[in-house]
Amino acid sequence: LFLAALAIFHAFEYIAIALFNPTKLTLDSFLLNHSPEYTMATIGGVTEFLIELYFFPQLKTWGWLNKVGLIIVVIGQAARTLAMFSAKSNFSHYVEFYKEEHHVLVTDGIYSLLRHPSYFGFYYWALGSQLMMMNPICFVGYGAVLHYFFSDRIFQEEQLLIRFFGQDYRDYKAKTKTGLPFI
Q1: What angle do helix axes 36-55 and 117-132 make, rounded to 10 degrees?
Q2: Taking the chain, what is the end-to-end CA distance rounded to the nearest angstrom?
Q3: CB-based burial, 112-133: b 16+ in 10 Å, e otherwise
Q4: Which has the closest alpha carbon to 126: 107, 106, 104, 150?
Q5: Which pLDDT score, from 0 to 100, does residue 34 have?
Q6: What is the pLDDT of residue 128?
């Protein structure tokens, strides 16, 4: 089930760029080689699952907690996909340091509820995947690393958005939440 969720995640990353930013479309748009940290985290999650499955198979039986994890994965994927499809050409896999002419402040759709819905989606997708696989070590590790990463990323990105959109972004920020704990 994790491999299916992973395949769906990467497919939607590619599809969103193909539909809304075709000039930036490359094989990298799948985000398969996103970063060494992402690769290590994914390998770590699979490794923890396999080791615990071998030594403690009773911990890996399908139950209500796995189902909760699956529901969180689906919610996270839906939020991230809605974010990409709402932002359209304004969505990028990379922080944009310069405002392009076509950039607009997206405040409708899922962006009317969450300030960074793609980050919200990935955060909960990643944590849900570890809960679904019953990986307690990676669940805690993912939570810590994701919190650190998104705290820094959102701070930097919001400074740029204030520079790009000024008071409009400040007003938008005041009306919305990130949906991420303590960020």
Answers
A1: 20
A2: 30
A3: eebbbbbbbbbbbbbbbbbbbb
A4: 150
A5: 80
A6: 99
The residues facing 114 across adjacent strands are 177
- Length of the chain measured in residues: 183
Per-residue confidence (pLDDT) for residue 62, from 0 to 100: 92
User: For residue 145, what are its two tokens?
Assistant: 């690393």
Helices (H), the chain: 2-20, 36-55, 64-87, 117-132, 136-165, 167-175
Helix axes 117-132, 64-87, angle to 10 degrees: 160
Q: Report which residue type is found at 5.
A: A
Strand partners, 177: 114
The low-confidence residues of the chain, meaning pLDDT below 70, are none
What the chain holds in terms of domains, given with CATH numbers, is 2-94+102-175 (1.20.120.1630)
